[in-house]
């Protein structure tokens, strides 16, 4: 089975990182893999370690109609058995058209839980042979919009549990972020866009600092709302309490040193940063939206709060900062859940099973508890 993957993301986080994991996990499950990605993308270099070939193709978004002939040229050259589209930005529709014109079965991954109009679902997904969602919550959104159940399968995202593990280097961590020994740290890893809920965390900070004044909030990521969030923190006098750490490539070293991770999102397909935190043995406080409850189990490995409720968020943060034993118990349970249900192998086997089904093959693939 020869599979051609299309990923339009330029940065190696979120969906692009999952594609890299999938390329790695599919080795031995498919005979050949080809990656198509933008010339300036981070996955172009990294993907070559797992894909048999990498094609650099310009991808300029939904309006880039010339992507269709570009992809068709690659398809004529490679002649894959199946095309797997991983990005919504341009690739899902335009890639679907290119594959259909070439007469090749095409699968699309859906990573977001925002609803689409029924007419759009009916038209758009007619291009695709099958849809793979990264959470059951996203699958339910598509079913509610009229997509037939036999056309959509949930295969959860994965985390590299060997890279993300509970190995804390506290001395290095304190030196890197200029922290004193008695400071507690609350982290957030997310793009600075409205749906991630940074403003909710800012609203919760006063209540947290009243009970835990030696708390530092470390915000990792970048995005269009970063400057506004920074200005808001400065206006409220928290410039010394909120650290804007940017995008870092050493998160596996940083996360185990935090006291907890927060994710007050308004919309979230699943939340890769939650998986990374859990793999590092961190307790998590997050919103009860989208696929997050599939990762964070209240009373087991973290706490869930209503989206937009800063008071609930502060109460949950304060509880875990005050109770180290509870936080440690949540962290251990989170690590165990990741190993059980969100491994790279499980994700790869789940996608390979979909490939075989779409191609009408009956390959026997090993079962995994993460697919249950």
Automatic annotation (TrEMBL):
GO molecular function, one term: glycosyltransferase activity
Glycosyl transferase family domain segment(s): 177-337
SUPFAM superfamilies: UDP-Glycosyltransferase/glycogen phosphorylase
Keyword terms: Transferase
Any Pfam family matching the protein: Glycos_transf_1
Span of domain Glycosyltransferase subfamily 4-like N-terminal: 15-162
Protein's UniProt name: Glycosyl transferase, group 1 family protein
Organism this protein belongs to: Nitrococcus mobilis Nb-231
